[in-house]
Amino acid sequence: MGEEITSYEIPLRLPIIDFSHKDLKRGTHEWDSVKVEVRKALEEFGCFEALIDKFPLELREELHGALNEAFDLPLETKMLNVSEKPYHGYLGVHPERSPLYESFGIDEANVVENVQGLSNILWPQGSATFSKLIQYISEQQLGLERMVRLMILESLGIEEYMEEHMDSNYYLLKLMKYAGPQSTEAKLGLYGHTDKNMMTILYQNNDVNGLEVRTKNGEWILVKPSPNTFTVMIGDSLYAWLNGRLHSPFHRVMMKGNKARYTTALFSILKAGYTVKAPKELVDEQHPLLFKPFTFDEFMKFLHTEAGETSDCALRAFCGVKNIT
Ligand SMILES: O=C(O)CCC(=O)C(=O)O
Ligand SMILES: [Fe+2]
């Protein structure tokens, strides 16, 4: 008797990890079990969905409205959001590279005044609602980023580096809009890339999906966040610092239909001059050093060279690494 084999397609989904326990405190049983899941998900996918406390629906709608209003402002007003650092201010659509995408940036978003600063630039009297909402969401994202970071370090037995990590990072908050392409065929919202920073916490503000993450096997997963999940993702800097222990996933945004998509992303980035060098605890015979020590600024400069722009994996090209499994 032959065994009956049913073949069915298993829709791939990112792991969902529950961060909503009231007593998710260091040293508790809950913390330790979430930590194990985090490590597993980040080794395999480099990202996961974190279920957080219920996000009140009114807040979500208000935030959606506030973002809508901000992106509807005249281009001259939006362009007042400037920064000395490249890519940290307003970025308008790029006709070839990203015709649907535009974003605002708030540098050092962990400083309350900086979040309020953007609303004062955009509206003559500022907008208390906008600042309150952006402030709220970025605080939630920041809290989660720090928790995940500590879990990662703890799970590798190197939590003593947490303070150094916190001292060497700053946070950039990006508010992003992807216009609906007015077509049923998927169009590129954001070109495929790996994040170059340490870690990214994404919040999709409305129910328009579009983020796709490529697995190690080359399959694309469409991320379908719920109103109460943040997407956590590892960037190349942390990947290098961890000597390749966790994965930094290739991802892109594809858009369909006519509804715009809004996301709010918190990027933790290394401060200028800080050297990314894997700690001695993560380098041994079985795990030889994968990347030469580098500063984030050097890496960013390389990204803007021809070799950096054309390479599939800029980090490997930058560090002269041929093949990593
Ligand atoms: O909007 C998203 O979901 C992804 C954005 C992204 O990948 C990025 O800004 O690096
Ligand atoms: Fe990204």
UniProtKB/TrEMBL annotation:
Residues 167-270 form the Fe2OG dioxygenase domain. SUPFAM superfamilies: Clavaminate synthase-like (SSF51197). InterPro entries: DIOX_N, IPNS-like_FE2OG_OXY, IPNS-like_sf, Iron_ascorbate_oxido_reductase, Oxoglu/Fe-dep_dioxygenase_dom. Keywords: Dioxygenase, Iron, Metal-binding, Oxidoreductase. Pfam families: 2OG-FeII_Oxy, DIOX_N. The keyword Cell wall biogenesis/degradation does not apply. Probable 2-oxoglutarate-dependent dioxygenase that may be involved in glucosinolates biosynthesis. May play a role in the production of aliphatic glucosinolates. This is Oxoglutarate/iron-dependent dioxygenase.
